[in-house]
Amino acid sequence: MSLADSLKPTLYAARAIAGRLGFRTHTAALLISTTSGTHTGDGSRSDVETPITEADGQSPRTRWLRADELAVAGLTSAAIEIGPITPEHSGGGTDLSSLQGLDLENGDVRLVRITGPMHPDGTDYRITGITADRALRYMIRAVPVGTR
Amino acid sequence: MPAITDSMLRSWGGLTLPAVAGDLSEEGLSALDPGGDKLLALFRSAIVSELGELWAAAVATLPVSHRLYGKAAVADTFPDEPIVELMSQRRAGFPLLALHREGPATYEEHTLEKDRMTQQWRLHYILGPLDVMDRRKLADMLVAVPKVVALVIRKRGHASYESGALQFFAATGNFASVRLVNSQSGEVPFAEGSGTAWHACQMVLETVELSGWRDGAFGDVEAADYTVGVGSDEGVLPAGIVASSDHEPSL
Description:
The complex is a heterodimer of chains A (148) and B (251). By secondary structure, chain A is mainly beta. Chain A is built from 3 helices and 9 strands, in the order ααββββββαβββ. A 7-stranded antiparallel β-sheet of chain A has the order 2-1-7-8-9-6-3. A two-stranded antiparallel sheet of chain A has the order 4-5. Chain B has helices at 35-59, 84-87, 132-138, 141-155; strands spanning 10-12, 15-16, 76-78, 96-109, 115-129, 177-186, 198-213, 225-232, 235-244. Chain B is elongated and about 80 Å long. In chain B, strand 1 (10-12) and strand 2 (15-16) form a beta hairpin. Chain B has 251 residues and is an alpha+beta fold. In chain B, strands 1, 2, 3, 4, 5, 6 and 7 form a 7-stranded mixed β-sheet that branches. In chain B, strands 8-9 form a two-stranded antiparallel ribbon. Chain A binds chain B through residues 36-44, 101, 104-111, 126-128, 145, and chain B through 26-28, 37, 75-79, 85, 88-93.
């Protein structure tokens, strides 16, 4: 077992502390939407929401890089960064391939749903980048789709 | 035909008025503009039919891990503009065929009674990133696809789609005519500035959609008398032309 593999469970637990203390105000969930018709959006829609979490189901940090309000009542062009997210390991963590959408079928939609004080009803973001060049963390960057 | 209300009972291309709840399909409001989806399906069918066998033989020589290994000549279709804001939400397969309206539509009088809308479209055939070896092996597909599209347009259909039914005529609804304006190989919208060279061909099409009337909008004409005044701003000769049909007009 490498040093990185031995550190992941510790970091997984450590990254949950802020959430237990109430400092993680927003939750992030990977949203996969499939539709039954020929093209994306055709037919009936089915959503699967998978929370992105650290130990004990605690949320990783969600940080707004900027928050430009485009219109009253919440239409923003706010870019966010989610993480650090602990990579998958024997004790838990997040599978990178699920973030990347490698198992999706053509036409399936992959978004991230953020819920919290900024988005009480949940708002969907599209992923603009995933940083996975560090052994002990992933980072996700996303911008709002603007539909919710 | 729905009950006559305040509707104009007109049509324009694929749009038929009034639009009623029964027109709603699983494609949402596609009943308002069905032509694009049909064009996309037609071109996909023709490209796969005409080029698919040779394409399959070519990609079979690629490494198994290659993005294009085992993929059909058109692996995915997208009835919208392949911009990063949309493409980053949706899993896409490659080669991808995308079609969307582009630019302003112009409106003109076609006849005294009909109007004409002319619109450009952009058809993208996107292979994806290719290294220098892949490019040599596969990039000529970007030359062949526009030629197939042009021939399909000339033929107004393809045997592999709807049993070869003719697609573009003034009487068929949707488009009265389609033409391929130009084609160009180059960058794709969603990859601009990414630093990765995505290989694609973009074809600019131009369609004409004509206005008309809904079937049954008017009763049959039994007879008609025409009296036409002829003149200019200097004066009019009334009843300069008098014409009458063979039947007496009914009262």
